Amino acid sequence: MDVRAKKHLGQHFLTDEVIACRIVDSLTGDSPRVLEIGPGMGVLTKHLLNRPGIDFWAIEIDSESVDYLHSRYPSLRVLEGDFLAADLSGLFAQPFALIGNFPYNISSQILFKVFDNRDRIPEVVGMFQKEVAERVAARPGSKAYGILSVLLSAFYDIEYLFTVSEQVFNPPPKVKSAVIRLRRNGVESLSCDERLFLRVVKAGFNQRRKTLRNALRALDCPLSAIPDDLLSLRAEQLSVAQFVTITNLLPCQ
């Protein structure tokens, strides 16, 4: 298959086998079930197929790529469909790890789906646009710290593993990429109303230049029980624990 013919998918295809091996080797192996998102021409797939002791599947939205994968890797179990629309409860009876060179245009959506299915997905190893990877791995006080940073770090330990040059893709993207790993931590649930927690985090970062005193007015909920030292901060300065504290102090449970 000619990679140039696949440009319409908006995906940049990894061509460096060393990088492909590093990505696959970044899986800890704690989960015996692995799902690859968007295998394309199979640069990660062939290394995953050689990995012993895993129950491996792939999901690919493009029918031409599915046909190619079936012909090139006859033993591969590949599902044709959209990961974002997939019912993950029907894929595996047990939790499974995710891996992939994720398309830039849907990478944040993939991570939000990981958050929503966090009890099914104990590990994620993925390549993202470097800016997105830095945002996910960011810590409080960083300008990159945002909604995904908070939500994912509440339930995952996040590691920025390595940066990837744009020259190892065809066609080369205009930005660098990076590989990160998410591993489920021991938090089963937050000690607050998690739906309200999500609203608080989103309200804080939707007006991230404002202090929480102003940003949280969008919740239409009294803020009088929240200490001034918290309300005077901006969302990017708060830890997960502080967001939980604020959530518990709001009367609009």
Folded structure, characterized:
This protein has 253 residues and is of the alpha/beta class. The protein has two domains: 3-184, Vaccinia Virus protein VP39 (Rossmann fold), CATH 3.40.50; 194-249, Helicase, Ruva Protein, domain 3. The protein is 32% helix and 19% strand. The protein is built from ten helices and nine strands. The protein has a seven-stranded mixed β-sheet with strand order 4-3-2-5-6-9-7. Strands 1-8 form a two-stranded antiparallel sheet. Helix 4 links the parallel strand 5 (97-101) and strand 6. The longest helix has 13 residues, at 194-206. Residues 1-9 have low confidence and may be disordered.
Number of domains: 2
Mean pLDDT: 92
In terms of DSSP E residues, the strand content is 15-25%
Low-confidence stretches: 1-9
Q: Largest beta sheet, briefly?
A: 7 strands, mixed
Name the CATH architecture of the largest domain: 3-Layer(aba) Sandwich
End-to-end Cα distance, whole Å, is: 55 Å
Number of strands: 9
Order of helices and strands: EHEHEHEEHEHHEEEHHHH
CATH level 1 name of the largest domain: Alpha Beta
Shape: elongated
The largest sheet has its strands arranged as 4-3-2-5-6-9-7
Q: Which structural category fits the helices and strands?
A: alpha/beta
CATH level-4 homologous superfamily of the largest domain: Vaccinia Virus protein VP39
Helix content: 25-40%
Radius of gyration: 20 Å
Number of helices: 10
CATH-defined fold name of the largest domain: Rossmann fold
